[in-house]
Amino acid sequence: MTKQEITEFVQGLIADLKYKEALETLSAYVKGRDRYIENDLLMQIAAFNRNSRDRANGLISQENYGIAESKLTYNLNEILPRLPENGNDVEVGNDAPNNAKTPQNTIRKILFLTANPRDTSQLRLGDELRKVKDGLAAATQRADFDLESEPAVQIPTITKAMLKQKPEIVHFSGHGGKERGLAVQDDNGDLVLFPTAGLDRLFKMFKDTVKCVVLNACYASEQAEVISKHGIYVVGMNDKVGDKAATNFSVGFYQSLGEGTDYEFAFNMAMVNIAADLKYADTPELWYNGEKLDI
Q: What is the pLDDT of residues 26-72, one digit of tens each?
């Protein structure tokens, strides 16, 4: 098998959370070909087996297991570019991963994430989600979009959804923590921050599939700048933003995308949607490649 073939197949296994199969496939491909990668894979296999055993025995929380999965995904994606151009032939069978069966998926997936920890001010996130869905449902190109939502997100919720859904657009609505990160929830529903460095690492891993991120949260411009450095369009808020303005921005943005516009046009249309609310009219920003766009 060639490097490209094995890379595409393993990426599909990772996306389907089939870590055991991914590790076995890579090990078979490099056996006797690259002892350094073989050793790296042995370490990943040992960590995976240990975490799986601890999870089965109740010795590791779901949150920590999710973090371990994210680390494994990152490590495997770091190994893939180092694979030899030609490795051993590997029997992959008929149980190909989902994305290998449908490599040309024309549906644009939106992953809509919300978090409102109980120790923060309450937001009308359900109202925003409903209006975005209604706007897309009425759009000319509604068949081109698939919106999946995840409420009350924790860090493992987000990483699992990213792997499973493989979105083109990631939307987060909730509270921002300025330079510290975004407010998500812990097992008890209380606030915990998804730090900026963690968001940077996450979107670095998904930069080939994610094209746009909308951070509909107060004081999220620093996260927008960091994420945008991976060649992703990112909307961020440079100050506080009210519930109504945040919802109106989202409605305008997705209505425009549903009519076939690009991200810059959709951003401008969303800005028009909140123009009458002078207090927040200049709060949203659009970032790309680490720079705020003057549009």
A: 999 999 889 899 999 999 999 999 988 888 888 888 778 888 888 89
Burial class (CB in 10 A: 0-12, 13-18, 19+), 85: exposed
3-state SS of 153-182?
CCHHHHHHHHHHHCCCEEEEEECECHHHEE
Residue pointed to by tokens 């680390």:
71
| Residue 279: both structure tokens together | 């207090």
Q: Are the C-beta atoms of residues 190 and 117 closer than 8 Å to each other?
A: yes
The domain limits of the chain are: 3-88, 108-292
Adjacency order of strands within the sheet including 212-217: 145-150, 108-114, 169-174, 212-217, 233-237, 284-288, 291-292
Is residue 256 within 8 A of residue 269, CB to CB? The reply is: yes
How close are the terminal C-alpha atoms of the chain, in Å? 47
Copy the structure tokens of residue 252: 């305008």
pLDDT in tens, 185-228: 999 999 999 999 999 999 999 999 999 999 999 999 999 999 99
Identify which of 171, 185, 194, 164 has the alpha carbon closest to the alpha carbon of residue 112.
Answer: 171
* Amino acid sitting at position 164: K
CATH architecture of the domain with residue range 108-292: 3-Layer(aba) Sandwich (3.40)
Phi, psi of 224 (to 5 degrees): -60, -45
DSSP 86: B
Q: Which two tokens stand for residue 60?
A: 């590791």
How many CB atoms lie under 10 A from the CB of residue 218?
21
Tokens 């620093």 label which residue? Answer: 222
Query: Which structure tokens are listed for 221?
Result: 């411009």
Q: What is the pTM of this model?
A: 0.67
